[in-house]
Amino acid sequence: MKANCWMGRNTVEVREVPDPRILNSRDAIVRVTSTAICGSDLHLYDGYIPTMKKGDILGHEFMGEVVEVGPKVSTLRVGDRVVVPFPIACGNCVACTHGLYSVCENSNPNAGLAEKLMGHSPAGIFGYSHMLGGYPGGQAEYARVPFADVGPIKIENGLTDEQVLFLSDILPTGWMGAEMCDIKPGDVIAVWGAGPVGQFAIASAFLMGAEKVISIDRFPYRLKRAERAGAQTLNYEEVDVLDALRDITAGRGPDGCIDAVGMEAHHPAGVVHAYDRVKQATRMETERPHALREAIMSCRNGGTVSVIGVYGGLLDKFPMGSLMNRSLTLRSGQCHVQRYLKPLLKKIRNGDIDPSSVVSHRMRLEDAPRGYEMFKNKENECNKIVLTP
Ligand SMILES: [Zn+2]
Ligand SMILES: [Zn+2]
Fold first, then answer.
1. From ligand 2's centre to the CA of 177, what distance in Å?
2. What tens digit of pLDDT does each residue of 326-369 get?
3. What does residue 67 show for φ and ψ, rounded to 5 degrees?
4. Ligand lying closest to the C-alpha of residue 384
């Protein structure tokens, strides 16, 4: 089959690779009909997530048709149309039974690698480094889905791929980002990053009763999308974000601050940015956590900072004093996608939310290398790319 493979820093290549096979009794094989490139794939592309190997198949957002099931998968049949959540979860361990699917205790065969860096291991993730399981991803013609009786959700009615594909990651991730802010009617929520996850966080915050949502980014086309979703926008290349948020909230700061940016935050040139670049280049710091620092500093006393942007390891100049002295709550996590599949599918069906609106480009799987470059450089107002094998 054809698959999009990581070949080194800033290089992906669509190559011929062996078809996946059923390895365990709870596996299924899915023929991929649609897959997407995620902002967090860029952290792999840029070489900031450790333990990638040449030839690894990328992609953790995919859906398709079940073509084979293992003997212990009774919930799916050949021919079923499914969306596959990006965290791989067994459904039986302590984490899974508490709904904490993205920290499943049984799905990362390389847990030891993750433990060295993080203390304990999170779940395995499709196409997201060997530290997170070394699972071949879904930017391919076929994918093996472990624990197929737990993760995939069946799509039974006439919804299009683009309406449901983002249940695999970015829609529930944006939703969980807003949910972690515990939004009360009248709340003001600020969202760093107006990419697709930020856009879904904005829509979710409004659905949860936020009175005002402020979107922070620097690309006018993304800010325009945020504006269309009802958000007030701040271009951080034009205004001082902390000052602006103080002004908008009568000096108090937003009730909830969502970091939908993660480890490669851009920053207008400055001393702290230069410091991060040097430390990151010399591998003394894995992150450039500018958005996170700003989210903490601007949050109102007693408010919540919700981190859904992806981080890889260690960061510097973390404003712990601000967090502690001002009674902030810091919440974070890779999305527990499985938890949100049914309720969010219902919202899509009811028309409360239209995930397909984030798609800006459609390409063939073969064009993935061009897609990665375009998405990385934000060319052609690239917001979200869907690939079709
Ligand atoms: Zn993703
Ligand atoms: Zn589990």
1. 22
2. 999 999 999 999 999 999 999 999 999 999 999 999 999 999 99
3. -115, -10
4. 1
